[in-house]
Write a structure and sequence with these properties.
By secondary structure, the protein is mainly beta. The protein has one domain. It is 9% helix and 35% strand. Strands 1, 2, 3, 4 and 5 form a five-stranded antiparallel beta sheet that branches.
Length: 89
C-alpha cells in the first residue's frame, strides 16, 4: 500500500518505507455495508480478531468481507486489501 507522501513525483518503483501509524480493519457485510472497524497501532502484523469481536459487529451473519487499510494521522490510504470470509458447508 502506498502510504508515503514522498511517492508523489518520484519513481513509483522506488521502495519507500511505510509511514502509517495504524492498521484499520473494516468489517463489511456481503452487500458492502460497513458494520464496524478495528484499529491496531502500528503498521505491521499479524493481528488477531476474536470471535467475540466479530459477533459484536456482525450479530448472526456468518459471511462478511474484511478490508485492511493503513492510517496516518487519521487519514486513510486509498488502496486497500480485502478478503471475503464465508461459512463452509
Amino acid at each position: 500500500m502506498q502510504t508515503s507522501e514522498l511517492r508523489f513525483g518520484f519513481n513509483v518503483a522506488q521502495d519507500l518505507p511505510c509511514r502509517a501509524d495504524a492498521t484499520v480493519l473494516q468489517v463489511l457485510t456481503m452487500a458492502e455495508v460497513l458494520k464496524g472497524e478495528l484499529a491496531f497501532a502500528g503498521n505491521t502484523g499479524p493481528v488477531t480478531i476474536t470471535n467475540a469481536q466479530l459477533v459484536a459487529l456482525l450479530g448472526s451473519e456468518t459471511d462478511f468481507k474484511l478490508r485492511a487499510v493503513y492510517s496516518l494521522a487519521g487519514l486513510r490510504s486509498l488502496i486497500f486489501d480485502e478478503i471475503t470470509v464465508w461459512r463452509g458447508e
